[in-house]
Structure formats: C-alpha cells, structure tokens
C-alpha cells in the first residue's frame, strides 16, 4: 500500500485548510489510490471505499471498545485517557455509552433505549413542529438571521429536552450544559473550554439522575419515564447505563442534527432548481434529507476494531488493529453514487452511510430525520423568499475534527 504523499488522519480534518475548503479532493485521491490506507502515526487503517465501509459496518463481530485496540492504535486509544480533574462522575459513567459498547452488553442496553425512543418518536411530530414554529416566530420580524445560531442550533436541543422530560423552566440551563458537554469531543480545547465541558458534563450527570429519581416517584409523558418503567418491568439496564445513554442521545443528536439542518438549508439555497422541486412536491422532503445527509454528511468517521485476522479490500488486517471508516468518503464513491457531487433530492442510488450501519447504526436516527424534515420544510414554507444574504462569500465551516457543519449562515428571510 502506498503511503507517500497520501493524507493521514489529521490531514483529513478541518485543521488542514485544504480539507476544510474541499474535503472531497483529498478523499477522492485516497479512495482511488489506496482505499485501505495505513496511517502509522495514528495507528489506523483509513477505509474510503463504499464497499469496504459498508462491509465492515455490517459485520456484527467487529469490536468497538478502545480497550480492545492494539497499543499502536493511538487514535482509538485516546478514549482511554484519564478524565480531566474536576469531572465528578463515577468511572463507569465516563465512557461513551452505546457508542463504544461491545456485545452482549451493547444490545442489552441498546434494546430498551431504542424501544422507548422509537415509540416516543412515533408520536413526537406535533411537538417537533411546535419547537420549530416557536424559533421561526422569534426570527420572522428580522430581515436577516444567522440560520445556525438562531434556528439550526436551537431546534435539536429543545426537541431533545422535551423528549427527555426536562422542565421548560430549566431549558436555558440545559442548553448551557449541552453546549459544554459537546466540547468533550473536541481534542484541542482551551482551558476555558475544558472547564465548560467539565461543568456541562457534571451538570447533565446530576440532572439525569435527579430526573430518573423524580420519574420513579411521579411518571410523566416523556422518555425518562418510559425508561424507568422498562427498568421496573425487568429491562437489564442500570442507572449508570441509562444516564450514559441519555447523555449520548443529547450530545450526539444535538450536534449532528444541527449540522443536518444547516447543511440541508444551505444546499437548497445554493441549488434553486432542487428547492423548486421540493416546493412543488412536499413529498420530496424525505429524499431531500437523505441526499443532504449523503452529500454533506454531518459526521465524517466511525471506527471498528478487528476481532480476528482479516483481509479488507485485499489488505491484511491483524487482530486488534483499528479501522477508521470514512463515512463521507464512502458517500461520495462514484462507483455507487454517480456524479457524487451533484445534489439531487430525487436520487435513487444505494443507501448512504451517514448514520453508520449494522448493530451500531445511530440509535437516534429516526428522531434526527424527523427533526430535519420538519425544520427544513417549515423554514422554506414560512420564508418562501429566503436567500443567502452574502451569496458571493465562501461558506464558513466549523473547525471541529471529524464533523462538518457551518459556523454561521446569514440568510435574508424578508
């Protein structure tokens, strides 16, 4: 496998200005030259071809927990670094919950969470619509808005707060904790950002446990009540596992859905012919969300660890070696998605992998999809004349490694 002049993992993040401006040029080069590329510095194989990415995602024997990775797997084993001083959370609740659980614990914990969440999602559309309407009502009097700060960022946090059962009087504090907790996935935090992460994570830990205790005494119409009821009925999930699952839903669902909404609205604003199709046929909103997820995936990567000696795309992979699956690259594989840079809301190609796949497919995907559909359609329905306030400016992408979303998006809505 050639390594000369091919990008390593850190070059495939916004920390590299060339990648931030156009990630697809580097990913296309890697996919066509070395689709199972060994980055020795990070200690991972980087997979960029749809065939291998989909195959590994579908392999239910693959490992997830970083403790199973070889010592050379520097990137994967970063998750094992000690918690920062001041993080007052029991050790068993400091992990990433479902994200890095292996079987049989993963499905033992995931099954009741998914059961309760999907049942709640099925009846949550009116609540999601109400949240979307509330934020658009606050925006409608202004000639321009920052779509990210004023709308895309606001909707997911409030929807998840409603879903969990957070008292509306606590929404502002909940948002602050949520913003802080998200900083935990940023590897280059300032001292102030680290403190915000500690405060946010500690706050959410205390609050989720208080909420579970409160709902055992007095159930309500929310996800936490559903979960403690399932516990009482015999579901084998501890309070620590439930707390981690709820925080994981919040942190993962908040950031990714914010970027889904922002990226999709930006794509529609810059592709008027696709916007016209959607306006003429609202039933295309589902396809619009899926194509936005494919074309500008909010999440770049996921990872797996080899449980045995393997051959991946013609490359030998040894037991405990780490595989980095580049979801964005797979979603732009021209062998699977013809003309992959074309935004086409009627596209009928293979399923994208923006939500991962297999046993570890994103558990919050149904809620994220619904939020995206309601937010995007309602925005254009309410503001039919919406346009970019500065159409000649290049988009400003966030610098958060392994995620892709806009920092700001100034939109004229009058």
The major beta sheet can be summarized as: 4 strands, mixed
| Cα end-to-end separation | 55 Å
Structural class: alpha+beta
Strand order of the largest sheet: 1-2-7-4
CATH topology: Cytochrome p450
Beta-strand level of the residues, as a percent range? Answer: 5-15%
Number of strands: 11
Tell the overall outline: globular
**Rg over alpha carbons:** 21 Å
Number of domains: 1
Give me the strand/helix succession.
HHEEHHHHEHHHHHHHHEEEEHHEEEE
Number of helices: 16
What structural keywords apply?
414 residues; 11 strands; Cytochrome p450; 16 helices; 3-stranded antiparallel β-sheet; alpha+beta; 4-stranded mixed β-sheet
Structure description:
- This protein is of the alpha+beta class and 414 residues long.
- The protein has helices spanning 17-21, 23-33, 50-58, 74-77, 105-121, 125-139, 147-152, 154-164, 171-182, 191-217, 223-232, 239-270, 272-280, 285-295, 327-330, 365-382; strands spanning 36-39, 44-47, 144-146, 301-305, 310-312, 315-317, 322-326, 387-388, 396-397, 406-408, 410-412.
- It is built from 16 helices and eleven strands.
- It has a single domain (9-412), classed as Cytochrome P450 (Cytochrome p450, Orthogonal Bundle), CATH 1.10.630.
- The longest helix is centred in the middle third of the chain and has 32 residues, at 239-270.
């Amino acid at each position: 496998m050639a390594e000369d002049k091919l990008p390593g993992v850190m070059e495939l993040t916004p920390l590299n200005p060339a990648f931030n401006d156009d990630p697809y040029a580097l990913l296309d080069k890697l996919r066509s030259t070395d689709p199972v590329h060994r980055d020795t510095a990070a200690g991972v194989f980087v997979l960029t071809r749809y065939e291998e990415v989909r195959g590994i995602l579908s392999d239910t024997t693959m490992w997830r927990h970083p403790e199973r990775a070889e010592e050379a797997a520097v990137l994967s084993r970063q998750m094992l670094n000690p918690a920062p001083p001041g993080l007052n959370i029991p050790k068993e609740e400091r992990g990433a919950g479902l994200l890095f659980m292996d079987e049989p614990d993963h499905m033992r914990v995931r099954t009741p969470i998914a059961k309760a969440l999907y049942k709640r999602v099925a009846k949550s559309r009116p609540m999601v619509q109400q949240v979307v309407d509330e934020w658009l009502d606050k925006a409608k009097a202004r000639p321009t808005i920052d779509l990210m700060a004023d709308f895309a960022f606001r909707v997911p946090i409030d929807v998840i707060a409603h879903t969990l059962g957070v008292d509306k009087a606590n929404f502002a504090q909940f948002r602050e904790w949520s913003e802080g907790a998200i900083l935990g996935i940023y590897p280059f935090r300032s001292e102030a950002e680290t403190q915000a992460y500690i405060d946010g994570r500690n706050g959410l830990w205390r609050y989720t446990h208080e909420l579970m205790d409160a709902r055992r005494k007095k159930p309500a119409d929310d996800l936490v009540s559903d979960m403690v009821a399932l516990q009482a009925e015999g579901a084998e999930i501890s309070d620590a596992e439930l707390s981690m699952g709820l925080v994981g839903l919040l942190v993962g669902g908040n950031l990714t859905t914010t970027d889904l909404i922002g990226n999709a609205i930006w794509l529609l604003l810059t592709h008027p012919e696709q916007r016209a199709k959607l306006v003429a046929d609202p039933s295309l909103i589902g396809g619009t969300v899926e194509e936005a997820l494919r074309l500008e995936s909010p999440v770049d990567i996921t990872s797996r660890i080899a449980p045995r000696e393997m051959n991946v795309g013609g490359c030998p992979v040894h037991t405990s070696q780490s595989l980095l699956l580049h979801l964005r690259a797979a979603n732009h594989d021209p062998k699977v998605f013809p003309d992959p840079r074309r935004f086409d809301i009627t596209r009928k190609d293979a399923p994208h992998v923006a939500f991962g796949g297999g046993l570890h497919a994103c558990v919050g995907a149904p809620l994220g999809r619904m939020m995206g559909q309601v937010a995007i359609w309602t925005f254009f329905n309410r503001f039919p004349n919406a346009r970019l306030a500065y159409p000649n400016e290049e988009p400003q992408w966030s610098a958060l490694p392994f995620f892709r979303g806009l920092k700001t998006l100034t939109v004229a809505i009058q």
